[in-house]
Design a protein that fits this description.
12 helices; 78% helix; disordered C terminus
Length: 302
């Protein structure tokens, strides 16, 4: 019998784009769900449910492949994951889903700068170009004034910084770690962090007060944005480069903007729309430079 032919990169890229579609819709749904559930308790329930799902369906693989020496590194990466989701989720409380989506996508801009001290990589001066483009875009999103930036935009940028740390630290410490092991540890660590912050920031929960939109949001985040999206991501990342993945992740803010347009009736002024276009362009450009790195390294080794 012939072995199954390997799938094309387009298939794995499609999985990553589907992941971004799920996340983009979640950003808009969160604005609706917040009417009946508080942000931190929503995250807490999300990670509790997703951890249970992973353990039920992948528990045997987890206990078979988890290694004691990898746990501290997994926890470190998971803490940056938790901060990324917490900052990003809270940003949706204070700004539009569209703005939050575009600013949360800046990790690909920030990661190359972190790679210099953390991964000992040589700095590529070309990375300054997308930074300039993105800063100009941020200026226009703010209506031509940085003073128009509020708490929501700042939290979204902090989410991007946390995501950049997560990606960089993953590249440094977790190359040989089973993806399911990392997923389950991430869910558990995120659950603990969110549980503590939920009690501190929002007090004891009143589950009877959570309406149907709130429970629907929890289910969508746990099943779609965590369990399924992580599976799509892990399958794809075992066949494509991180740089290619970063390029596909640039589609998330577009899906967020589209979902917010139809679900929340969010509209953008022409100057803000131009700013979002520049942010997206800068993110794509940064991803393009990242994709060129393996080619440059190969040329240097010859």
């Amino acid at each position: 019998m012939k072995k199954n032919a390997p799938r094309s990169p387009l298939f794995y890229g499609s999985l990553l784009v589907l992941e971004c579609l799920i996340w983009g819709v979640a950003n808009a749904l969160s604005k609706i769900g917040f009417d009946s559930i508080t942000p931190m308790w929503c995250l807490t329930l999300r990670y509790a449910l997703s951890a249970v799902l992973f353990l039920v369906f992948c528990g045997k693989r987890f206990f078979r492949n988890v290694k004691k020496k990898d746990v501290p590194h997994c926890v470190l990466v998971s803490l940056t994951t938790a901060s990324a989701f917490i900052f990003g989720f809270l940003s949706l409380v204070y700004t539009t889903a569209t703005n939050s989506g575009f600013f949360m996508a800046l990790a690909v801009i920030i990661a190359p700068f972190l790679s210099v001290p953390l991964l000992k990589e040589k700095f590529d001066p070309r990375q300054i170009i997308p930074v300039i483009v993105v800063v100009l875009g941020m200026y226009l999103v703010g209506g031509g004034s940085f003073s128009a930036f509020g708490k929501g935009e700042l939290l979204a940028i902090l989410s991007s910084c946390s995501t950049a740390f997560m990606l960089t630290l993953s590249g440094k410490y977790l190359k040989g770690v089973d993806a399911i092991v990392l997923c389950i540890i991430q869910c558990i660590v995120c659950f603990v962090c969110c549980l503590v912050l939920a009690f501190i920031m929002e007090g004891a929960p009143v589950f009877s007060a959570i309406g149907l939109p709130g429970w629907g949001l929890v289910l969508y985040l746990a099943i779609g944005c965590t369990f399924l999206a992580y599976l799509f991501q892990n399958i794809a990342l075992s066949h494509v480069s991180p740089a290619f993945a970063a390029l596909t992740w640039c589609t998330e803010p577009l899906f967020t903007a589209i979902a917010a347009f139809f679900m929340l009736k969010e509209r953008m002024m022409p100057i803000a729309l131009l700013g979002c276009t520049l942010i997206l362009a800068g993110t794509v450009l940064a991803s393009f430079f990242e994709m060129k790195k393996p080619v440059a390294k190969a040329a240097e080794q010859k």
